[in-house]
Amino acid sequence: MNDAHARRYYDDFSSWYEKQRHHGYHAMLDDLETSLIAPHCEGRQVLEVGCGTGLIMERLAGAKASPSRLLGVDLSMGMVRKARERGHGVVQGSATALPFGDERFDVAYSVKVLAHVPDIRAALSEMARVLRPGGLLIAELYNRHSVRYLAKRLTRPGRISESRDESEVFTRWDSPSEAASYLPADVALEAFYGVRVLTPSAALLRLPVVREVMPKVERLASRSRLGRFGGFLVMVARKRGA
């Protein structure tokens, strides 16, 4: 899948992207991802690669540990427009050719995006390039060793618009060791975390009691040894040379 195809896919997706994202399962994911990223951002210059409509940026901007400057980049102009409507500084660009100079940011992160980038090594190399020495690269990939992977194999692709579904986008599933192997040589892995470790089905978050309890359970699991079995793997790595 080339950038032009991906751009059309996500431009179409932009009109549906926030359906049901402000509560239940998807809100839990966004909250968990933000909880892993926010502690590294206080007073720093931060870039989100594949920012979508700016939901994570909005959470970070409102967090106590807020960045001194927060920018985003996304391949889809439809997504960029919606993020800009939220007041975020966002530009259009590809994860494999970031439109920023070398060593500009202290933190570069990406969630729910890199699993859909065929040339993952190029994307991670670009994130490392724009980091200052000692900067943090936070990358989320999809975990083949997870309940989420099994669930996806057993269900039909979800719809992303009136005319498209998830089968039209490239998706890669990695083991933790495969994910770590994609990091460029000038970046050292520091930690693995997991998101959606114990939730067997997104539909469970529609139940009132589960909706209250599961986010707390998942937050504890994300930072435990069980995190390596999360449906989403979050790598925290540091650029050498500080």
Task: Give a short synopsis of this structure.
With 242 residues, this protein is α/β, with parallel strands linked by helices. It has helices at 3-13, 24-37, 55-62, 77-85, 120-129, 147-154, 176-181, 208-222; strands at 45-49, 69-74, 89-92, 105-110, 131-143, 173-174, 187-195, 232-239.
Structure notes:
The structure is a single chain. Helix 2 crosses helix 3 and helix 2 runs parallel beside helix 8. This protein has a single domain, classed as Rossmann fold (3-Layer(aba) Sandwich). The radius of gyration is 17 Å and the shape is globular. It contains eight helices and eight strands, in the order H-H-E-H-E-H-E-E-H-E-H-E-H-E-H-E. The N and C termini lie far apart (37 Å). It has helices at residues 3-13, 24-37, 55-62, 77-85, 120-129, 147-154, 176-181, 208-222; strands spanning 45-49, 69-74, 89-92, 105-110, 131-143, 173-174, 187-195, 232-239.
